[in-house]
Write a structure and sequence with these properties.
Keywords: ATP-binding, Helicase, Hydrolase, Nucleotide-binding. This protein has two domains: 157 residues, P-loop containing nucleotide triphosphate hydrolases (Rossmann fold), CATH 3.40.50.300; 37 residues, no CATH class. It is α/β, with parallel strands linked by helices. A six-stranded parallel sheet has the order 1-6-5-2-4-3, sandwiched between helices.
């Protein structure tokens, strides 16, 4: 689901979204300050939540990840550090508090739910503060996946639409190559396979995670 949510209403609407499904739920936010604000708000509302980002020391992050993985906490709020090597096989719901700056991170985020043949839900908040080029990529991704495109996304058209098309083909939003779309991009697929293969060799945090 892609929802248009005003900036000032996002944290309240987030709580409503958490009630849509049972835990465990992953909440992604791009800014560390947003992660902290969301975490504090959820705790005030009685939600069993933990948070991780690059400014927290490794011991605290490992403790939070363990509590979430073991089911002692229902919600993990994280920057994209959590999509760069942490594996949670039973995620029921992924909530994107914001739209990431590139479509690749979006694909990584929503790929955390519905694994191993299980059903999962992904909810993404967007508003006028989002970069239009990323929203166009999102629109194309939804179209390729044959998912419903919200009216506010359907209305978006790139100024250089004619430059993106060659005959009946449109370039891939990830690598720019012709003849395929982002959902079939071999470069993106290879990158995802490589990262997934590395999960078993990683501890709780990906190399360089503290830089996020």
């Amino acid at each position: 689901e892609v929802e248009y949510v005003k900036q000032e209403a996002k944290v309240v609407y987030l709580l409503e979204c958490l009630n849509k499904t049972s835990p465990p739920v992953l909440v992604f936010a791009s800014k560390k300050s947003d992660v902290d604000d969301i975490h504090e708000y959820l705790l005030l509302k009685g939600v069993e939540a933990v948070a991780i980002h690059g400014d927290k020391d490794q011991e605290e992050r490992e403790r939070s990840v363990s509590a979430f993985r073991e089911g002692r906490k229902d919600v993990l709020v994280a920057t994209d550090i959590a999509s760069k090597g942490l594996d949670f096989p039973n995620i029921v719901h992924v909530i994107n508090y914001d739209m990431p700056e590139d479509i690749e991170n979006y694909v990584h985020r929503i790929g955390r739910t519905g694994r191993s043949g299980k059903t999962g839900t992904a909810t993404t908040f967007i508003n006028k503060s989002c970069d239009e080029s990323v929203l166009l990529d999102l629109k194309h991704l939804l179209a390729e996946a044959k998912q419903k495109i919200p009216s506010f996304l359907a209305a978006l058209e790139p100024e250089n639409e004619e430059l993106l098309n060659v005959g009946d083909e449109r370039g891939c939003a990830y690598c720019g190559g012709l003849g395929h779309r982002i959902t079939d991009c071999p470069k993106l697929e290879a990158k995802q396979i490589k990262e997934t293969g590395n999960i078993g060799r990683k501890d709780y945090l990906a190399p360089g995670a503290a830089d996020w």
